Amino acid sequence: EMELARANAHQKAATIDGMSVHVESNISGVDEARKAVHYGADGIGLYRTERHYLGRSTPPSRGQLIDEMRNVLFATRKLTVNIRLLDFGADKSLSYLSFLSEKNPALGRRGVRFLFDNPELLETQLSAILEVSKSFNVRILIPMVTVPGDVQRVKEVVHKIAREMGVDEVPKIGAMIEVPAAALSACEISKHVDFMCFGTNDLAQYSFAADRDSVAVEEYFDDSSDVIFRLLSIVHGDVRGMPLSLCGDLAARPEFVARLLQCGIKSFSVSPALVPIIKQVVRGSKWIS
Ligand code: PEP
Ligand code: MG
């Protein structure tokens, strides 16, 4: 079984009843990018960019960001890459960025909210992404979208910078669906985005009100609960035609692949070494049960 998976790793995957499915990879640096290509990923479903901000005493300059992202993008070759905007604020913080001290950081200025509070960070990152979009196939993914206005605000900045840079073709823009309110208003959000990506790690954290990293409440944190599948189904029903992908840990669990296909997920993003395995599971699954 494993050998078969490895042998077919670079072939596209389709279900028994012929629906083609993308199995992509989550990455955060050059090593994983190389591995993703090695293991036959069909794309980069999630490029986490926090690493470019770690281990320094000031935020990276536009030029530094461009250089570092280019290194990663060269390694991904011709794959389409979803570059996620910085997702700092809750568990992760940085000495040189001023975080407001909050009682409940996971419910505070996290992800895109933190970027709205630090517009120069947002603008520098978007400007760097628009620059690399001239030579690589990239899309922009927004973390912690809660209301449609979050997407609209980011888009305004994207278009402003694109005008300043003389960039005509703006990358596609997607929303992470990882907050229950976003799932339940997917229809409104869908008017402003080209694709949606479920972050089931956070969707579970916020649905069950249980810190995803806390052992004390781990019994409550259940990312494969009916509750989660119900949210996925609601989104699927509400946004027919919208490309839906899933990049949380749930995507990498073979026993749930068939059920996720039924929720309209046509793209799974998992860690590089798991790509061949999930492809093989897809090949043995039916889309319509
Ligand atoms: C998620 O929340 O499921 C996700 C993929 O993003 P992260 O784990 O980086 O928060
Ligand atoms: Mg998340």
UniProtKB/TrEMBL annotation:
Q: Which reaction does it catalyse?
A: L-histidyl-[protein] + phosphoenolpyruvate = N(pros)-phospho-L-histidyl-[protein] + pyruvate
Question: So which cofactors does this thing need?
Answer: Mg(2+)
Q: Which GO terms describe its biological process?
A: phosphoenolpyruvate-dependent sugar phosphotransferase system
Task: Give the species.
Answer: Simiduia agarivorans (strain DSM 21679 / JCM 13881 / BCRC 17597 / SA1)
Q: Is Cytoplasm set as a keyword in this record? A: yes
Any single GO CC term annotated in Swiss-Prot or TrEMBL for this entry:
cytoplasm
Question: What keywords does the record list, in alphabetical order?
Answer: Cytoplasm, Kinase, Magnesium, Metal-binding, Phosphotransferase system, Sugar transport, Transferase, Transport
Q: What is this protein called?
A: Phosphoenolpyruvate-protein phosphotransferase
Q: So what EC number does this one have?
A: 2.7.3.9
Compartments it resides in: Cytoplasm
Output one GO MF annotation. Answer: kinase activity
Task: Say if the entry is tagged with keyword Cytoplasm.
Answer: yes
Q: What class of enzyme is it?
A: transferase
Q: What is the role of this chain? A: General (non sugar-specific) component of the phosphoenolpyruvate-dependent sugar phosphotransferase system (sugar PTS). This major carbohydrate active-transport system catalyzes the phosphorylation of incoming sugar substrates concomitantly with their translocation across the cell membrane. Enzyme I transfers the phosphoryl group from phosphoenolpyruvate (PEP) to the phosphoryl carrier protein (HPr).
Q: Which family does it belong to?
A: Belongs to the PEP-utilizing enzyme family.
Domain called PEP-utilising enzyme C-terminal: residue spans: 7-284
